From TrEMBL:
PANTHER family: 2-DEHYDRO-3-DEOXY-6-PHOSPHOGALACTONATE ALDOLASE-RELATED (PTHR30246:SF1), 2-KETO-3-DEOXY-6-PHOSPHOGLUCONATE ALDOLASE (PTHR30246)
CDD domains found in the cross-reference section: KDPG_aldolase
Subunit record text: Homotrimer.
Annotated GO MF terms: (R,S)-4-hydroxy-2-oxoglutarate aldolase activity; 2-dehydro-3-deoxy-phosphogluconate aldolase activity
Protein name: 2-dehydro-3-deoxy-phosphogluconate aldolase
E.C. designation(s): 4.1.2.14
Pathway: Carbohydrate acid metabolism; 2-dehydro-3-deoxy-D-gluconate degradation; D-glyceraldehyde 3-phosphate and pyruvate from 2-dehydro-3-deoxy-D-gluconate: step 2/2
Amino acid sequence: MTDSSVLDLAPVVPVVVVEDVADAVPLARALVAGGLRAIEVTLRTPAALDAIRAVADEVPDAVVGAGTVISPQNVADSVAAGARFLVSPGWTDTLLDAMKKSGVPFLPGVSTTSEVVALLERGVSEMKFFPAEAAGGVPYLKSLAGPLPQARFCPTGGVSLGSAPSYLALKNVGCVGGSWMLPADAVAAKDWARVETLAREAAGLK
């Protein structure tokens, strides 16, 4: 990773919710083996920071990041744990300042044109579009490309294997975020071979 753009690491960024820290390393290894190096671990569980730390320490080929970053404390804790990028569902001036000072790439979340313009005004041109499907999906992003061609997005939220290609075909989309390659039953069964197979399928998307 050049540490310059999260959007260019892979066509799909897995969005991971880790309940058991013991799953973090084998899960990350399966994703990397399938071709998905960028892994967003969401800060939605008590195990999240330990999971980021474990992946950063034990899976050198992974580029692990933190998702659901919603406060300066989240930013500090994530970077301290080894996160190499940050993703937020939305942004405020306070959160944006903390992410800018973190020293790692970040994708602040947007769902409206005004939020996009406000970020461009602050010198940020790479963003997460969330919740993608609920906020207008492919037609919405396609409409933004005309007046705001300098903005690039990672749509996340309701994106599936079936809909991902339509997003990736847009010139203002660098990658998509999703969790379909991590079905709950496969994770519960620790079926990492299935995760790897699904990851490889996702990595092959254009």
